[in-house]
């Protein structure tokens, strides 16, 4: 099992990067690997670029004064060497990278709670609908620069590292939603099945820490159907 832990390099006494921490249970010798990333603190970020990678500018005023819309704590530095590292049992760092076409190093904001929510969704999908190893992350982190280019809303949760646009892409793996209802089509009805799996756990006491946005989107000329999830901390619904 692997999981993600984040730490800021506030005092410059830790080197930015990735540190695998192996935890061994004495009785069973079971091993858990905790992947620790020492981030570049946001306070070290100036202008619109970070080591040549364009981040853009975060909103100077949080949306409605909410703390969840304050700039992120820091950025994980991503290289070709570490991008395929597991940040949870079924998701890799690379899956959450912004889609903008720039070289390495790249930078990503990623919150642990989002990973926990995605693992929970994946578990429910395998129980109720479909056997799959992971969920396809169509869009994870977005830099403010890229978010503006694609015309998305200013305060998108994707900027803050706790949102993902997801679909099931297992058979075949072609970067499109699978035909979950076996009607011979790939459309919004398949996204609805995934949506309903997630919606079913809303309202349960144990799910409260993962409350956030939930939306489904139809197929367009630029993308297939998908479902949006985030962990903003309050209930929000929209979409087709």
Outline the secondary-structure elements:
Elements: E1 2-8, E2 17-24, E3 31-41, E4 49-50, E5 53-54, E6 74-78, E7 86-88, E8 91-92, E9 106-108, H1 112-128, E10 136-139, H2 144-149, E11 163-167, H3 188-199, E12 213-217, E13 226-230, E14 236-239
Parallel strand pairs: 1-3, 12-14
Antiparallel strand pairs: 2-3, 3-6, 4-5, 6-9, 7-8, 10-11, 11-13, 12-13
Descriptive notes:
- It is a single chain.
- The protein has 240 residues and is of the alpha+beta class.
- It has one domain (2-239): Muramoyl-pentapeptide Carboxypeptidase, domain 2 (2-Layer Sandwich).
- The chain has helices at 112-128, 144-149, 188-199; strands at residues 2-8, 17-24, 31-41, 49-50, 53-54, 74-78, 86-88, 91-92, 106-108, 136-139, 163-167, 213-217, 226-230, 236-239.
- Strands 1, 2, 3, 6 and 9 form a five-stranded mixed β-sheet that branches. Strands 10-11-13-12-14 form a five-stranded mixed β-sheet, with helices on one face.
- Strand 12 (213-217) and strand 13 (226-230) form a beta hairpin.
- The radius of gyration is 18 Å and the shape is globular.
- The model has no long low-confidence stretch (mean pLDDT 91).
